[in-house]
């Protein structure tokens, strides 16, 4: 028979409980236990004779020798009957059935708990639950006495654990803490299954606290009425939560609340618009101000050029100023703003934050109202066009300007087209004008750039302008560019150039008829210098693909 430790452990565990006589008190001692195996089992006294063995077996049951393990457990008739009809005995059930009768010495220690539950704690939320677990409490005491743990006994979570209200209700009467100074064989009165409950309570106390905090409404840091914080609104507005509180009052739109807020911040407009928190309040306030309040704000913001400049150049102030430009409704207010901005237009257009204010003004106001700004831009066209932020403003001015202002701006751009085409930022302005596809303007630009197309094609920035001319200009205007490229003495250098090769490819794509054939043939004649060149081979490949079928290669 093969030895199986697992099966032996299960059999030994059953014999441990089924080998007991339920009518006798179990008094374990070192002499009555054999420690050779995983679990202990009771054996008959060593001095008992063979006849006595058979006598006891005849009266109470029988000793059955297990050939596999060598154990000699005692099995009475009742236990044999249970094993015959139900298979193996249930060790947990055996203790639960006889716990009250087998352990009378524990009754004095258990009675205080029972009296507490039955007398003074009927209102306790654990009352009904612990009544149902009375057998389980006795079971835990048995296992603690034997210094073993039950593999089949795992206390479940009480039904009240997830209840954030009832789980924290505890009885503090003196009778609920019996015999704190007495121990049961080394176990405290809080031992046994009460330890399990305490562990559950401790493990879930933090969760209960979190649930209670989440269930409680968030306490407002500020009162519901603005009257309670009068005189402190500027200080409150600098706080993030305070600013949100005031924004909520502005969004409600009550005139009395708006007036209270306005009355305290009207003398702090600069700080209101430039502060990291208060600028959001400013944007909300501008939406709900009446005409009188808006007049005061506009006058305060535009009366001093230095303060207005600092507002527009500030990362927070530029947003507040754009919102102010967006919400003003009267012509007088718009006139005041445009007049003030026209005095600082050049400074703002060349700033990363400030140029957004000028752009927003051009988009929001009528063209006649922004004429002072357009005049300043036209007077400083070249300076603005060559600035990283200014070139964006100039392009927008050309789009939104009236006819007279547009002609003036375009005249300035055309006059400086050659210099602008080679500039890192100015080339975008020239491309923008060419993209408008106004034939007269395009023709004037071509004349300004004529004779310099090959040199411009080998410039990092101007090459984009030449390609724009080839793609957007009419055929009669693009032809001079193609002829200049084909007849250039530096044709090979253009094709091999890191930037010029893109212009040569655009010529191949744009040219038509005889000009295209001329361009293809000239490229293929330079095959020896292009087929292995990193840039030239791109032009050579495009020329081969562009050649009509049926024609032999040169």
UniProtKB/TrEMBL annotation:
GO cellular component: cytoplasm
Entry-linked CDD domains: Pumilio (cd07920)
Keyword Cell wall biogenesis/degradation: no
InterPro entries xrefs: ARM-like (IPR011989), ARM-type_fold (IPR016024), PUM-HD (IPR033133), Pumilio_RNA-bd (IPR033712), Pumilio_RNA-bd_rpt (IPR001313)
SMART domains with a match to the protein in the record: Pumilio
Pumilio repeat copies, ranges: 264-300, 375-411, 412-447, 448-483, 484-521
Domain PUM-HD: 205-547
Keyword entries, A-Z: Repeat, RNA-binding, Translation regulation
Organism: Tagetes erecta
Protein name (Swiss-Prot/TrEMBL): PUM-HD domain-containing protein
One of the GO BP terms on file: regulation of translation
């Amino acid at each position: 028979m093969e030895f199986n430790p697992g099966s032996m452990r299960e059999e030994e565990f059953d014999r441990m409980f089924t080998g007991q006589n339920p009518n006798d008190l179990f008094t374990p001692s070192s002499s009555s236990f054999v420690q050779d195996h995983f679990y202990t089992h009771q054996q008959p006294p060593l001095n008992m004779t063979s006849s006595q063995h058979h006598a006891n077996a005849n009266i109470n049951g029988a000793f059955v020798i297990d050939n596999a393990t060598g154990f000699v457990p005692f099995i009475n008739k009742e236990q044999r009957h249970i094993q015959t009809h139900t298979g193996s005995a249930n060790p947990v059930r055996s203790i639960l059935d006889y716990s009250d009768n087998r352990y009378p010495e524990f009754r004095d220690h258990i009675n205080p708990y029972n009296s507490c539950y039955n007398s003074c704690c009927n209102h306790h939320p654990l009352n009904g639950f612990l009544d149902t677990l009375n057998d389980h409490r006795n079971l835990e005491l048995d296992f603690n006495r034997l210094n073993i743990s039950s593999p089949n006994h795992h206390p479940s979570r009480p039904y009240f654990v997830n209840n954030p209200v009832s789980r924290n209700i505890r009885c503090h009467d003196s009778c609920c803490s019996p015999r704190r100074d007495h121990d049961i064989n080394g176990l405290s009165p809080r031992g046994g299954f009460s330890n399990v409950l305490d562990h559950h309570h401790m493990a879930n106390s933090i969760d209960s606290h979190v649930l209670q905090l989440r269930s409680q409404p968030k306490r407002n840091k500020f009162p519901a009425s603005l009257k309670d914080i009068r005189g402190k609104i500027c200080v409150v507005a600098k706080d993030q939560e305070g600013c949100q509180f005031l924004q909520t009052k502005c969004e409600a739109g009550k005139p009395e609340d708006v007036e209270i807020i306005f009355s305290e911040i009207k003398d702090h407009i600069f700080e209101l618009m430039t502060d990291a928190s208060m600028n959001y309040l400013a944007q909300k306030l501008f939406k709900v101000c009446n005409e009188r309040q808006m007049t005061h704000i506009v006058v305060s913001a535009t009366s001093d050029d230095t303060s207005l400049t600092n507002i527009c150049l500030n990362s927070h102030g530029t947003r507040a100023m754009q919102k102010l430009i967006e919400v003003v409704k009267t012509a007088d207010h718009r006139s005041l703003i445009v007049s003030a901005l026209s005095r600082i237009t050049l400074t703002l257009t060349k700033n990363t934050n400030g140029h957004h204010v000028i752009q927003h003004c051009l988009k929001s106001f009528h063209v006649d109202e922004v004429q002072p700004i357009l005049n300043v831009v036209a007077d400083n066209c070249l300076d603005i066009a060559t600035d990283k932020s200014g070139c964006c403003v100039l392009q927008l001015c050309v789009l939104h300007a009236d006819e007279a202002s547009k002609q003036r701006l375009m005249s300035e751009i055309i006059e400086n087209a050659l210099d602008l085409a080679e500039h890192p930022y100015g080339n975008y302005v020239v491309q923008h004008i060419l993209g408008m596809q106004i034939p007269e303007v395009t023709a004037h630009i071509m004349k300004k750039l004529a004779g310099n197309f090959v040199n411009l094609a080998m410039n990092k920035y101007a090459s984009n302008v030449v390609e724009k001319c080839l793609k957007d200009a009419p055929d009669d205007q693009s032809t001079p560019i193609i002829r200049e490229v084909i007849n250039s003495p530096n044709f090979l250098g253009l094709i091999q150039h890191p930037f010029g090769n893109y212009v040569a490819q655009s010529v191949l794509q744009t040219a038509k008829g005889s000009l295209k054939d001329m361009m293809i043939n000239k490229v293929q004649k330079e095959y020896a210098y292009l087929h292995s060149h990193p840039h030239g081979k791109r032009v050579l490949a495009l020329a081969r693909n562009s050649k009509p079928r049926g024609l032999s290669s040169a």
